[in-house]
Amino acid sequence: MPPDTAPPADGLRTASGGDARPVPFRGGGFRPRPIGIVGPIVFVALILLWQLGSVTGVISDVALPAPSQVFAAFADLVQTGMLWKHLGASLYRLAIGWTLGTAFGIAVGLSIGLFSLARAGLIPLVSALFPIPKIALLPLFVVWFGTGEGSKVATILFGTFFPTVIATYGGIDNVDRGLIRMGQSFGLSWLSIVRKIVIPGALPAILSGFRISASIAVVLLVAAEMIGAQYGIGAYILTAGALFATDQLIAGVAILSLLGLLIAWLIGRAERRFLDWRT
Amino acid sequence: MRVIIDGVSHDYGETQVLRDIRLTIDEGEIVAVIGPSGCGKSTLLRLVGGLERPDRGQILLSGDPPPGSLNPLTYIFQDFALLPWRTVEGNIRLVLEDHAIKGKAARAIVDDVLARTNLTEFRTAWPRQLSGGMKQRVAIARALSVRPAVMLMDEPLSALDAQTRELLMDDLVELWTRERFSACYVTHNLAEATRLGHRIVVLSRRPGRVREVIDIAIPLAERATRAAELDAVQRRVWTLLRDEAREADRELTDAA
User: Fold this and answer.
1) A277: nearest CA in chain B?
2) Mutation target among A185, A191, A273 for the B interface, most CBs of B within 10 A
3) Domain made up of A65-274: CATH architecture
4) If residue B15 lies in a helix (H) or strand (E), which one and from where to where?
5) What is the pTM of this model?
6) Contact residues on chain A for B126, CB-CB shorter than 8 A
7) pLDDT in tens, B215-233
8) Quick one: CA dihedral B112, B114, B116, B121, positive or negative?
9) Which residues of B are less than 8 Å from A278 in CB distance?
10) CB atoms B51 and A197 under 8 Å
11) What is the ipTM score, two decimals?
12) What is the assigned CATH class of domain B2-65+149-249?
């Protein structure tokens, strides 16, 4: 190649003595990016593989029912109308227990975050009560609140209360003190500072607390329903287990999974709605 | 309205922060307070604004704030202190809401201060979308909206890069020329102090005392073009500061 057609390369070569080479690349990585389609593909592939294993006999029917059988059990549940009875009972307990637990949790978390006296008095109490497995208290709840809905709602309520308290006051502790000082410097009232600076600043932490408390609520729901409930996903799973109807058992577990996905999606929506200011 | 700082001393526990500070901020005057880091400049400003109480001495206000002043002593913070969950307009409205200014009246004030700070087109932007310089302009607009008598500026340009700082200094000079606001301008930057201060108060290292007060006779608007004269002042301040800064740099800090 004549030198005048490629002057930069030529210049480079002259300057470097002819051994110019690109700088080795060492950056990149450590940056997960969203790939939307992979999740569903993994699910579908796994289920197909499972079905294949069942059809060919690699997976025995006793060990694990085929996905088609699980689906049949689920279809049966829909046809008989039992799905709505079970799901309705579960969602009712979940909604009431979680809402009350979260509401009380936010209220207590706020007072711990805002008042020194509440902080001094309640944090040790929360630390003492949080690690107690609420399931262990279920018999006590049955005595206190009866065998009906009360004990089940109470289990969920207590289970969601503590994580919400901790998420809320943790969120408040992390609110930028500079912003609070700004509010004071403009003469904002205490209530305005709490409403417009403290609570919005703690909201990201509160919402991520919701993710945790909602999952805990589902776990406790099933546990509570396994003890003396006629309807509910937990009761359904328990009955299926007692009869060794593994297809029904897996169907019930799948419903719980879907419930978990739904809750995660709803909280994601809420985050996008309330935290649109964060990127 | 004048601010009179009368023999103020302040300590944080064992640490002596300020000793017997006496100075006055007159109406329409920018007093630049300069000193080595940790000399209590920001503490002084918090005391003046009533966010903390001085241990000894007092801070007095004399005369009336301008008519319609909602917040006579108004801060401009180094880190802008904008609420990330409110837009530019929302951040300005925040400080009006507590004075029951809503709807049309609030809108008029927001329009006015955004126009005065050349921010009109950023009304609906989120703070995260703005550069540092723009964020500080929003903070200035927010401060103007409450018609302050005295602006308390806590290193307002320290978080900005050198070029943005130049631009904002020009903006502030222009703003002062139009509005003749009074300000206590705390900084550790010599160029800012000499560009914007009618008077420069040099503080010693901790515990901060007033080492010297230097009046600069050159009008603010002319300072950009009279660099040589300004340079002489700057050098004089630096001679005063250098040893203090060196000593301060070698100190161990355990104060907040």
Assistant:
1) B85
2) A185
3) Orthogonal Bundle (1.10)
4) strand B15-25
5) 0.84
6) 277
7) 999 999 898 888 888 899 9
8) negative
9) 84, 128
10) no
11) 0.88
12) alpha beta
